[in-house]
């Protein structure tokens, strides 16, 4: 977290300068309060007025300095949390697909929400206020020695005792905070999971049981939040009580000095003001320390999350296919026991079309995922242009994959097709016409609903195919492109796939029309 604080150090240090000046004015005006009282009691009108005007000036300077401090500290906090969230997102995008799937979507959402907000409120926001309190304590302590060393020593000795409370319960604070965040992460994971299957929930009339499960997860999270806040409240209560007891002891001591004649009425007034200036900062300091202690495990987990990276890949990423793709006696198992692929071999020349077919679970998609380097073969090898795939980097630069699920984003049609790359409108219209969607050629800037809900299933499939063709890579992989389509739409998609030229095409499907199989250069049936 220090990286973000250092990146915004200008706002941070400017805020500290403002709070230091504000604290100086706040302490100094206490002496003018006493001066106004003493001069008024002595009947010195001119000195009373002069001191009162200076008092008003110092009040204005204190308020103005504190306003600037708040503005600058807010800018510091916003800068830190903005960069943290940027790095969270960058960290997610930097992962390969397999490492990304190792975590649930709810965990990623929790990093953006619960974890980031906790760090914002309990670390970034507390750091400037910590220094504000420390400045105030140091200046008030110095001013008390200026007033009377006996009152200063007694005040500092008594009012600093509550600061030990957060340290005494440090482990309980951290445990309570971690328990709440873990429960919140689990709740967000469940919500994401349920909402992704919203249609199923409605279709099966499962709202009531899901509502019960949500309430249980939410209640669990709120239960842990209550424990966390209860522990904080108890700590704050003890701290406040100890501070008030100390306050009254110092008040008694100051009154005793008045009775002895060592203090004037103005001095007593100054002492009261100084004690007020010191007691509340010390109470606040105990709370700030509690927050900073509790957030340590969250910061540590966040730093570990940001440090996670995709497996290192060697140089030499292939972006152009010269000869072809070859599977040599490839074996693969997810669990080390049940083999999905056994001695699988395939030699596909550049520009050829290949159909991988067979029943569900036979390894068709697994073979494609091995080619995409989502996993490594447990036996045999995969080669591109005769080079073992392990010696290459990411194969995304060479291949475009279109999955069974048509993925469209809530953006314009143009953005969905280009994925924010500059592509001429003429090329977009050409590809849309090629996939049988010429009616959309004049709707490039029209919005696409979430998940492409304003298009039919077949249109969504063809839009995804158009997006893949616009990327224009050497290899095009289509995983179950005919799934969940009516016969007419499926036949239209088949014809589109077979019309593709100048690309190496791998189609994974168990339902391609038999009469069209001769159009493939190879048809491989897995069992």
Summarize the helices and strands and which ones pair or pack.
Elements: H1 2-7, H2 9-41, H3 45-93, H4 97-101, H5 105-124, H6 126-147, H7 149-159, H8 164-168, H9 170-196, H10 198-203, H11 207-260, H12 265-294, H13 296-307, E1 324-333, E2 339-349, E3 353-357, H14 364-371, E4 379-384, E5 387-388, E6 399-402, H15 413-418, H16 425-434, H17 457-471, E7 475-479, H18 487-498, E8 504-508, E9 522-525
Parallel strand pairs: 3-8, 3-9, 6-7, 7-8
Antiparallel strand pairs: 1-2, 1-4, 4-5
Helix pairs in contact: 2-3, 2-6, 2-12, 3-5, 5-9, 6-7, 6-12, 7-11, 9-11, 11-12, 16-17
Task: Describe the 3D structure.
The protein is an alpha/beta fold. The chain is built from 18 helices and 9 strands. The strands form 2 sheets. It has a 5-stranded parallel β-sheet with strand order 6-7-8-3-9, with helices on both faces. α18 (487-498) links the parallel β7 and β8 (504-508). α5 runs antiparallel to α9 and α11 runs antiparallel to α12 (265-294). The longest helix has 54 residues, at 207-260. The radius of gyration is 35 Å and the shape is elongated. The relative contact order is 0.09.
């Amino acid at each position: 977290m220090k990286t973000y604080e250092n990146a915004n150090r200008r706002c941070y240090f400017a805020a500290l300068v403002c709070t230091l000046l504000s604290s100086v004015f706040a302490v100094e005006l206490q002496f003018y309060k006493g001066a106004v009282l003493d001069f008024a009691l002595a009947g010195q009108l001119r000195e009373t007025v002069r001191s009162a005007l200076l008092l008003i000036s110092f009040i204005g300077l204190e308020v103005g300095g504190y306003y600037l401090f708040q503005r600058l500290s807010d800018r510091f906090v916003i800068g830190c949390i903005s960069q943290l969230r940027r790095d969270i997102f960058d960290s997610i995008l930097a992962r390969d697909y397999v490492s990304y799937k190792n975590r649930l979507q709810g965990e990623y959402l929790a990093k953006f929400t619960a974890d980031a907000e906790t760090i914002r409120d309990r670390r970034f926001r507390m750091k400037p206020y910590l220094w504000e309190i420390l400045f105030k304590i140091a200046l008030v302590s110095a001013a008390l020695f200026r007033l009377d060393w006996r009152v200063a020593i007694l005040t500092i000795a008594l009012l600093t005792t509550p600061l030990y409370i957060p340290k005494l319960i440090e482990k309980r604070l951290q445990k309570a905070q971690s328990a709440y965040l873990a429960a919140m992460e689990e709740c967000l994971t469940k919500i994401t999971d349920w909402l992704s299957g919203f249609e199923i929930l409605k279709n099966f009339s499962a709202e009531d049981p899901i509502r019960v499960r949500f309430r249980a997860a939410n209640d669990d999270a709120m239960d842990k939040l209550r424990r966390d806040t209860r522990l904080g409240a108890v700590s704050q209560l003890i701290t406040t009580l100890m501070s008030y007891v100390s306050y009254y002891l110092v008040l008694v001591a100051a009154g005793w000095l008045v009775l002895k004649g060592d203090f004037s009425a103005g001095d007593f007034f100054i002492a009261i003001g100084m004690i007020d200036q010191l007691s509340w900062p010390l109470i606040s300091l105990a709370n700030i320390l509690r927050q900073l202690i509790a957030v340590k495990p969250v910061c540590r987990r966040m730093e570990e999350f940001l440090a996670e990276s995709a497996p290192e890949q060697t140089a030499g990423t292939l972006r152009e296919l010269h000869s072809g793709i070859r599977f040599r006696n490839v074996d693969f198992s997810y669990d080390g026991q049940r083999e999905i692929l056994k001695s699988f071999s395939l030699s596909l020349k550049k520009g050829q079309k290949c159909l991988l077919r067979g029943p569900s679970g036979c390894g068709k998609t697994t073979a494609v995922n091995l080619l995409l380097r989502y996993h490594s073969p447990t036996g045999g090898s995969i080669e591109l242009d005769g080079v073992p795939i392990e010696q290459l980097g990411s194969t995304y630069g060479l291949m475009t994959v279109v999955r069974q699920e048509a993925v469209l984003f809530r953006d314009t049609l143009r953005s969905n097709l280009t994925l924010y790359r500059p592509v001429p409108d003429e090329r977009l219209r050409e590809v849309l016409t090629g996939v049988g969607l010429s009616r959309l050629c004049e709707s490039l800037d029209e919005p696409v609903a979430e998940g492409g809900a304003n298009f039919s299933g077949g249109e969504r499939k063809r839009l995804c195919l158009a997006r893949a063709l616009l990327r224009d890579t050497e290899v095009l992989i289509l995983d179950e492109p005919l799934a969940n389509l009516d016969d007419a739409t499926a036949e239209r998609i088949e014809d589109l796939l077979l019309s593709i030229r100048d690309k190496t095409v791998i189609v994974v499907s168990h339902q391609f029309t038999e009469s069209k199989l001769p159009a493939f250069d190879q048809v491989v049936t897995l069992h």
